[in-house]
Amino acid sequence: MHLIHKILVSLLFAAIALLPLQAQEKQEMNKKSNMKELRVKKVSAANVPVQAIPALLDQEKVDFQPINIVNWEAFPYCPSVEFRIAHTDDAILLHYKVKEASVRAVAGADNGPVWEDACVEFFSVPAGDGVYYNLECNCAGNILIGAGAERKGRQRATQEVLDKVQRWSSLGREPFEERVGECAWEVALIVPYEVFFLHNLTSLDGKTITANFYKCGDKLQNRHYLSWNPIDLEKPAFHCPQFFGTLIFE
What we know:
alpha+beta; Immunoglobulin-like; 14-stranded mixed beta sheet; globular
């Protein structure tokens, strides 16, 4: 009986030791089950100017996807935001549509604090090596691009790289202070693969990558942090590739 008791005690301790691991595995499974997937259509945009991208995506019947997940109760405001994405032989095409209670475009140059303005963002891991890129664009078409495996120590794109991104904004390209009152705006971007400056990316044909899409406005009257794929963190954070969804490129 003493031996059986010792065996039972050992089994009990082994089971207890496994509980944190099982909980962690369950959390990982839940995280994966919440991840969204999106098929990215390939289109031809040869000689198409950036301002014509919305019309091209209409013609190609590329659907909009909502950016409408409010991840943090402290920031409940949820403007109407949607995006659509396609790709070509040499670039990613992005188109955002927004309706919100105010807009702001104080960051008047690239690599400035565009996240403080009315801002849409595209974060992605294009090469599967853990390095992710953050492309952030305010409502006047000024952008910021960073790259790295973590939030700290990120490398900013040079102006030469930033200039390769073609931008169109329905509000024009001039900076302005906050305008209060419901406003609808759009931006379109042509993002050539060479913008992923830490990699030698030449095509996304047939590839699957992870990514997330965001809307924020740190200094708008209604501060908010929306995402396409949900983020399970206590405080607002977009630099969290563990919560990216999946993009499947044709």
